[in-house]
Structure formats: structure tokens, C-alpha cells
Amino acid sequence: MLPILLDIWGCMPELSKNCIDMTNASSTYLGIVGGAIIGGVVSWWIYHRQKYTTAKQDHILGRIKDLEENHTNILKKLEDFDDKHECSFDALQELNKKIDTLLKKLDEDSLK
Questions:
Q1: Sign of the CA dihedral running 42, 43, 49, 52
Q2: Which of 40, 67, 70, 84 lies in the 20 to 30 Å Cα band around 8?
């Protein structure tokens, strides 16, 4: 079956003993097979490079997500810290006003 199929395609000296020279048909088929092999290798290489790049990007995105979560936690703690100190500062200002009022009363009482 294979020799009949090859005879239909044309004389291929690479596969047949009766051919002396390579024909246009056999050079075309050889080119197609060579191109398919090279295309397959290049496609495989590109696929694996993209797979590697995707894995790296996923790893980096995961690290960025972790950093954003840590950043958000730090900002929340700083906000809580600021709120606490704002309350303390307001209380100190209120105390300062009371002390100033008491000092004014003492000064007025000492002047009388």
C-alpha cells in the first residue's frame, strides 16, 4: 500500500530505490515535513516559555496582593493610632483650657 501511495506522489529517491533524482513533488513533501517539525518545535518552545512566564506573573501578583494586604493593615493601625492620639490631644487641650481658667480665677482672686 505504501509503495503505491508513494508512486502517486511522485518519485522520492529518499524512500524508493528506483529513483535517481529528487523530483519537485518529493522536495515539496520533504519541505512540508521539515516545516511541520520545525513549527512543532517552535510552538512547543513558545508554549513552555508562556507557561513559565505565566507562572512567574502569578507568583509576582500573589506577592503584590500580600503586600497590599499588609499595607492596608498598617494603614488601618496608623489610623487607629491617630484617632487615639487625637482623642488624647483633645483631652489635653480641654485640660489646658480648664487650667487657664483656674489660673485666671486665681489671678483675679489675688488681685482683689
A1: negative
A2: 40
pLDDT tens for residues 56-91?
999 999 999 999 999 999 999 999 998 889 888 988
The residue written with cell numbers 512566564 in the block is 53
Tallying the residues shown for the chain, one arrives at 112
Query: In whole angstroms, what is the distance from residue 71 CA to residue 52 CA?
Result: 29
User: Using CA atoms, how far apart are residues 3 and 17, in angstroms rounded to an integer?
Assistant: 11
What dihedral angle (degrees, nearest 10) is formed by the CA atoms of 101, 103, 95, 89?
A: 100
Q: pTM value?
A: 0.51
> What one-letter code names the amino acid at 3?
P
DSSP 10: -
Supply the pLDDT for residue 87.
Answer: 86
Say how far apart CA 44 and CA 38 lie, in whole Å.
10
